[in-house]
Amino acid sequence: MPRFSIIVPSHGVAARLSQALDSVLGQSSGDLQLIPVCDASDSPAAAVAAGYAERDSRVTPVHSPPSAGLSGARNAGIRAATGAYVLFLDGDDLLLPGALTALDARLTEIAGVDVLYVEHERAPWWEGEPTNPAQPLFAGAPKGAFAPADLPELTGVQLPAWSAVYRRDFLTEHELAFPDSHFTDLGWGGLTTLAAGRIAVLRRVVVRHRLRRQGSRLNLPGPHQHDLLDQVDLVLTRAAERALPGERIRPLFEQLFTQVLKTASRPERLPSGHRAFFRRATRLYRTHRPAGFRAPGGSLGVQHRLLATGAYSAFRALRGANRIAANTAESLPRTRVLRTRLRYARELRRPLDDNLAVYCAYWGRGYACNPAAIHAKARELAPHIRSVFLVEADQAHAMPEDVEYAVIGSRRYWEVLARAKYLINNANFAEGIVKRPGSVHLQTQHGTPLKTMGVDQSPYPVVAARSGSFTRLLGRVDRWDFNLSANRHSTQMWERAYPGSWEALEYGYPRNDVYCTATAEDVARVRRELGVPEGATAVLYAPTHRDHHTGFEPGLDLEAFCEAAGEDVVVLLRAHYFYDRGAAKSSGRISRVIDVTAHRSSEDVCLAADALVTDYSSIMFDYANLDRPIVVYADDWDVYRETRGVYFDLMAEPPGPVARTPEELAAVFADGSYAGEEATALRTAFRERFCEFDDGLAAERVVRRVLLGEPPEAIPPVIPLPERVPAPAAATLVRS
Fold first, then answer.
1. Taking Cα atoms as reference points, which of 35, 37, 44, 42 lies closest to residue 63?
2. Any alpha helices (H) in 498-654, and if so which ranges?
3. Which residues sit opposite 338 in a β-bridge?
4. Distance spanning both ends of the chain, measured CA to CA
5. Which of 74, 350, 364, 710 is the most buried (most CB within 10 A)?
6. Over residues 596-620, mean pLDDT
């Protein structure tokens, strides 16, 4: 029998589930059973849980239908539990290091308690200081185990289920289960405390509860708010059945009705039925009010008395004025643009142009990436929509002649941004751009995330310092209506990194369409344009940006690599787009290094290459669509992982051979292992995971859904990976 069974419901949190599971499996005390509870066997969370179960026998996934809700998921976990003690952990929260060791020590010290209450911290995981709401509740608790009557203020209803540890035999003996309710924690906390004979506390933070940016689901408006009264009635009825003394019931009553009054004082949570909620709360108040109960002082006491007398109109009048003032203040526009960009403000008063789309790529660096691919397809499928590309002044000369553009900061720039219905970007529009009602913002992204992105960068000081305010970042995310994804991994990571109300479009990346549509003639043409010698093996070297470096550092002696790798090898050097140029220093010899950093299209460069060498750049995910050899040059993986943070261990799941030194890198080319059977097997597994939706039809899917408004069921389905035919490599053509 394991010491602990940890139950982790996962509905709606697949993106963060791996972090929760890692926090459990990484505990110094390993005597545990981990039970992820997933919606269905084919859900994204189930795939994550299944992967953990394959690697660790302590993981026991179970399934509970979404209709059963959080309570059903937790109850399914309890039925599967075999441990002596049961813990609960939300799928987007963390069990802190050393937690199980501390729990084990405390439970050994106070053997036989039914419930051990623990501290937790509420942490805004993008910005802000964590709080410890349980700490004051434990202030007067005895040092050892005690009866609930010894500390009646500790009722359980003020603590979430994951802020306690429960003896499993106690739960079984009393047939305790989570009530079927949105407010299931409230009912569970009250019922378990009422049933417990001996309890104790641990004055240590065990769980980090990461507040969701969207807020608690319990605060959303809707008829589910009436469930709160069901739980209040359930707990107080059970307390009456046990004939508990008034000393125990009075704190429980007060804490429960504090929750009721919080909801009653927020009429926006009950857009309909607010009066009915208040009247039923009054009946419950009168029914369950214990003898000798005295209302608290201050404004809360006034609310108690108004509820007790059923004075609905007076209650609304008391709270209504303040709420109206607050809502009015919140509705006032705060954007600096409305104050400082008078022209933009004037244009915002004009109607939206339903046939105008604005595109931008890499903060105005030119006509490139997903926005350019969508722009090209829109001219074919939606010619009635006028398209304007935004570009910095120093890049305007490189725009294609047939593409209409506006220079960033110009009068025309502000005009089109104010009036366009469709705004499409692979980064973010400027801080002050207003999300107008009826406008549609599409975030296309520009890579698959290996390194941490968005608010996930906050734990890494070097990156966070350069990222600016995460609060402002999330304000820009709030403008998104759609967010593009090339694979399920990206979908989950974007959900973590950029939390918002946008809809994920798992359509693939439009810029990668060319990898399925380009011909042999296209490949030959690009190689000629780049100056690749006929018959040469072109190796694309594309290192990523290092946040801890101040400029571009090639990381390799590329001329020496060419000499050691083979006489027919040339290198196409493409530095990260943060750098204007990335040429290596010349040795005076005839160079076999071709600097393609400034070339407009990374897709063309990939088509020209027979193989890719990269470190941790997301270009590997795009290049994998070509099913050509990839070699990872990881000379500083440990440093990169610690300074930037990564979403998965690339060394454990690489797309091909991994080289740690220049000599190892040259050797895999010299002996041909870069394209051998083992390399092919690694690339195949990598493609199955990360080339999921890139089938050559991504741009069409985006245009049909976003610009033409076609329903999801009318969008072309994704072509299965085995049926796709990647563009041929030049080396293949030579051999043929």
1. 37
2. 514-517, 520-530, 558-565, 602-608, 619-623, 637-644
3. none
4. 63
5. 74
6. 93
